[in-house]
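Morning!

This is the sequence you dropped in the shared folder:
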Amino acid sequence: MPVTVWTQAATNYLAALNAPGSPAIAWRTRFEAVAETETALNLFATKINVNYGNSNDSASIDSKFTVRGYVAATNQVDLAADPLVLWAWTQLRADPTLGRTVSDARVESIEIGYVDKSESDQVCVDMTICVEVEVGRDNPSINKTYLG
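The structure's back. Tokens below.
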């Protein structure tokens, strides 16, 4: 069954997040079931902007998804979260086409928030990722950026 181009891009990025050397396992979920002492990355879609422009056969997509990193620490939680931010950023920029799926992928913003305060502080770091691609106007599983 065909899937949208932005879903293909997210799948390719998830594979990059789980490459050898990753500081945490990356999941494709918005489920926040991370133990108080566990580190994890979650990837989930948040918004898709569509611009039809002047083309009759394609649409320009800005797809946004979030990479949420969870980490727990007793102090300097921002420093504990840095390896997740650095990994997610460098894996994205190692191949900003995400396997020739999109024309560009970039970090748009980073937000740090506290999830839980108990024996250790649990922090989440949300990185908003934007991917750009041209898709078929009538079928968003057709990648017009790399077609032909």
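Headline: The chain has one domain: 5-136.

More detail when I'm at my desk.
O.
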